[in-house]
Amino acid sequence: MVAAGRGTRFGHPKQFVEVAGLPMVAWSLRIFARMREITDLVVVTEPEWIDSMQALLAQLGCATATRVVVGGATRQKSVHNGLTMVSASSDAVLIHDGARPLIGESDVRRCMNEVRMGRGAVVAVPVVDTIKVVDPATMAVTRTLDRAILWAAQTPQCGMRSDFIRAFSEADARGFEATDDVALLERIGIDVIVVRASEANFKVTLAEDVVRADLVLRERAQ
Fold it and tell me: What domains appear along the chain, each with residue ranges and CATH number?
């Protein structure tokens, strides 16, 4: 679980923003903690929030083995830090963004079920907008992409632990930065399967996203 970042848009760490009565990160933590398939839960956060995150895990009563570790300078480095702390007894790993509190248990399982050696998976949704490729120097459109083959990647992103460790180590060694985790798997020749999200699973980025997430979670609880 990646729950680092300083929350500059919110004035305090986004992962602790209250959504439907709980800190945002708690919603997905509760999902993972109650899944019997998940035996090891590693949360990556800022050093000053280690104690707060440990207190939240204790408050949630997580029976799963948990540990909280310090993130890195980038999201990719934070994930790599977390991967190094996953127990060797865990064959596979899923990586989730703490700013996606709406993930459903069934989607997590469908993503996990696609994983095997040499194969990863990612929860995603089809792109509904037309995507333009733009020259940043002139802002002129250079190409229009076919949205029929475009999908927007979300999290969790799943793969074998050994494949992820190899992919992140290779990227670090070559100074390569990706915008998501399975892109690093793709880079070393691992097949990645898309699992269509069955429920809302948007990333909370702006203040209005908090309101939207709050409404969805309260509706689900009814």
Answer: 14-221 (3.90.550.10)
